[in-house]
Amino acid sequence: MADFLFEPYAPVTIPIARGGLFAVRRIYCVGRNYVEHIREMGNDEREPPFFFAKPADAVVVGGAAIPYPPQTDDFHHEIELVVAIGKEGADIPVEQALAHVYGYAAGLDMTRRDIQAIAKKSGRPWEMAKAFDHSAPIGTIEPASEIGHPDKGAITLSVNGVVRQEGDLAEQIWNVSEAIAYLSGFVTLKPGDLIMTGTPSGVGAVVKGDVLEGAIEGVGHVRTSIV
């Protein structure tokens, strides 16, 4: 057995409802997938889907608090449906895409909005706006074998008990099947991959002390606080 220079990091895991752990491989995020959010951000509604990524160790579970990140004065919440991939595939046809889904969860795509705005203006990558430490709080994964494949239902985010974001999964421009099919044309999806499917309108800033509670009808909840 090879001698490691240092101990390999433990796998990042997310609890599965009714027991077990889902080991995270990669996190892909769909950009601009709800019309009202596209409008509030001033972007083109007719663009095809595009993707950015977060590292696996950005995941935060169990309702744990997250620190207010450095290098930003405009830290935003984005509630999203998270798709957990359970079967490998590339160039997956739309009509076969859901067979590759293990389950679903509610998640938060936390964003340094001011850094993102600078990156957009300069034509630079989004990593430092999206892919930083603790930027992906995620709730328990519900197996599709138990809840099916939700294509409608309320998706909401409250800050300190006040609703900030409110939409419906049916409002997604690119549904789960289409997102999987499109993404799998660029990369081979494998068990352990997550796809965060975009956020409805109402994104906004949070500060230290805020408590965030997200919910997706038929899927579950995600909770965190800013410290």
In angstroms, what separates the terminal alpha carbons?
42 Å
Count the domains: 1
Show unreliable segments: none
Global structural class: alpha+beta
CATH C-level: Alpha Beta
Biggest sheet, spatial arrangement of strands:
4-3-14-7-8-11
Please state the average pLDDT score: 94
Short description:
The chain has helices at residues 35-40, 113-122, 127-130, 144-147, 176-183, and strands spanning 13-15, 21-23, 27-31, 50-54, 59-60, 75-77, 79-85, 101-108, 111-112, 136-137, 142-143, 154-159, 162-168, 194-196, 204-205, 211-216, 220-225. By secondary structure, it is of the alpha+beta class.
Layout: helices, strands, pairs:
Elements: E1 13-15, E2 21-23, E3 27-31, H1 35-40, E4 50-54, E5 59-60, E6 75-77, E7 79-85, E8 101-108, E9 111-112, H2 113-122, H3 127-130, E10 136-137, E11 142-143, H4 144-147, E12 154-159, E13 162-168, H5 176-183, E14 194-196, E15 204-205, E16 211-216, E17 220-225
Parallel strand pairs: 3-14, 5-10
Antiparallel strand pairs: 1-2, 3-4, 6-9, 6-15, 7-8, 7-14, 8-11, 12-13, 12-16, 16-17
Keywords: Hydrolase, Metal-binding
InterPro entries: Fumarylacetoacetase-like_C, Fumarylacetoacetase_C_sf
GO molecular function: hydrolase activity
Structural account:
This protein is an alpha+beta fold and 227 residues long. The protein has a single domain (13-225), classed as Fumarylacetoacetate hydrolase, domain 2 (Alpha-Beta Complex), CATH 3.90.850.10. It is built from five helices and 17 strands. It has a six-stranded mixed beta sheet with strand order 4-3-14-7-8-11. Strands 13-12-16-17 form a four-stranded antiparallel beta sheet, with no helix packed on it. It has a three-stranded antiparallel beta sheet with strand order 9-6-15. Strand 16 (211-216) and strand 17 (220-225) form a beta hairpin. The model has no long low-confidence stretch (mean pLDDT 94).
